[in-house]
Amino acid sequence: MTTQAAAPQKLDGAVLKIAGVVVLGAIMSILDVTVVSVALPTFQSEFNATYAQVAWTMTGYTLALATVIPLSGWAADRFGTKRLYMLALLLFTLGSALCATADSINQLIAYRVLQGLGGGMLMPLGMTIMTRAAGPQRIGRLMAVLGIPMLLGPIGGPILGGWLIDVASWHWIFLINVPIGAIALVYAQLALPKDNPEPSESFDFLGMLMLSPGLALFLFGVSSLPETGTIAATKVWVPMLFGGALVIAFVLYSFKPKHPLVDLRLFRNRNLSVASISLFVFIIAFMGAGLLFPSYFLQVGGESTLNAGLLMAPQGIGAMLTMPIAGMLADKIPVGRTVPFAMALIAVGFFAFTQVDADTSYWLLCGSLFVMGLGMGGTMMPMMTSALRTLSHHDTARGSTLVNILQQIGGSIGSAIMSVILTTQLNKSAPIPGLNDPATGEPITEAGAAIAVQHGAQLPLEPSVIQRGLDFVADSFATTFWVGFALVLATFIPIAFLPRKKPEAPAVADEPNADSVDRPAPAMIH
User: Fold this and answer.
1) Which of 120, 169, 286, 459 is the most buried (most CB within 10 A)?
2) Residue whose C-alpha is closest to residue 90's, from 121, 59, 60
3) Cβ-count burial of 259 within 10 angstroms (0-12 exposed, 13-18 middle, 19+ buried)?
4) Of 443, 77, 411, which Cα lies nearest the Cα of 261?
């Protein structure tokens, strides 16, 4: 009897049924973030609130995610992934229903936190369920399935949110989750395999008291950057300092207990380490700038939210074309040989946005988004595949938690960096003498006036002033995109270290504490 690494297999019906449950949950949680971002101006008028107040509907959700994600690895092992996933679906659906009933901004923020507690567990649990169902030889193809909602969420959210607000009311951006959540709960009960929780491990209370508040404080500080415009603001540096200190304390402490809340020992696995760093840098670079692509269409082009979302569609189409191919390739070819080419497509497409002005052709920009989408489909999910492929069955939940924490931090940092740079550039615009904002009394700048006119405001200004303002806004976007482009190029550094040898399977499932996580799983030959 000899052993050899198992060959890649096709995805069977049972695995695809499980994937369907996870994709439903992912669609809800990811769409919800971008759908709500579209509704912020509506919340301001409906609840007579300031932008700083309504922004907490986003920040509160993000902080809830950051608090609960570290717990998901331990809870998945302790209670089983099916029970926990259904609980997460229930919390998210219940939170959605309550959000639709909110009659004050404070109520809405509180219900968004409840939503975030459920939403924060959906992605890491979904990745764990799919990784265990597919096995190491098919994880690439299955990750490609999960990647569809992850890439289409930022594109579909503005389209769906704009349409629902236009034809119905803001309540429906939350109510739409209720029937989807109910279907997902029934589907999960029928399709997910019965739980087989592993022997209970002691819960790391001390680690939780450091990591969850630390992440929440750090991300709160980062999320406050766009509002304050400077890291010197007390609202920014104080929570970032204390949050960072708690996270560092957790890192130093986490190697002592046998079962830490988040097992940083997994980073001894070179594939996980390199893929995680690559993914972290990539998300900072692309996700931050990616949020500004629709903003360009809104503020410079004067498009409606719905039209801006539709103009982003080529990116999703490109990703849908390459993602299934990339998933199959990830199961056969080392990701270090494919991801650099996909990343090059992103860089080529991104470069066009560094050249934008007030009159840049939409055909050029949509074509560039399509090229970026082709690259996106071959980048993000193969890197996730590389990160999780060589983990043992026992370590999969912990590895998924690590990857999701890095995604959350990277996305928040990227968004904050790009928002601050754009805001700083726009604030340099010259004020218009004698024209003040009636709400704040502050002088209106040429850039501010141009954006307002693009959205229907009637201001007593010469067309040349409006054009000058539009040119300034476009230049501000171009400058910000140059920073994003530089970060995209920086991503090639960690990508160069992705594995270039044939993917290896993890340690066998019945050896959860095996030291060598890179040993191929044996296949019996008679």
Assistant:
1) 120
2) 121
3) middle
4) 77
Q: Are residues 334 and 443 in the same domain?
A: no
The pLDDT tens digits of the residues spanning 187-197 come to 988 888 887 76
How many independent structural domains does the chain possess? 4
Indicate the length of the chain as a whole number: 526
Query: H/E element holding 435?
Result: strand 431-436
Residue 35: pLDDT band by 50, 70, 90 thresholds? confident
Question: In sequence order, which residues have a C-beta less than 8 Å from that of residue 169 and are 6 or more positions away?
Answer: none
Domain holding 58, by residue range, is 1-194
Tokens describing residue 29: 């949680």
Question: Helix, strand, or coil here: 525?
Answer: strand
The two three-digit tokens of residue 278, written as one number: 């690559």
Tell me if 519 is assigned to some domain.
Answer: no
Amino acid at 273: S
Asked if 413 contacts 222 with a C-beta cutoff of 8 angstroms, the reply is yes
Is there a contact between 91 and 25 (Cβ–Cβ < 8 Å)?
no
183, 67 in Cβ contact below 8 A? Answer: no
Residue 146: in which H helix or E strand, if any? helix 139-167
Question: Around 437, how many Cα atoms within 13 Å sit in the side-chain half-sphere?
Answer: 12
In the structure encoding, which two tokens stand for residue 67, read together? 């608090």
Same domain, yes or no: 4 and 150: yes
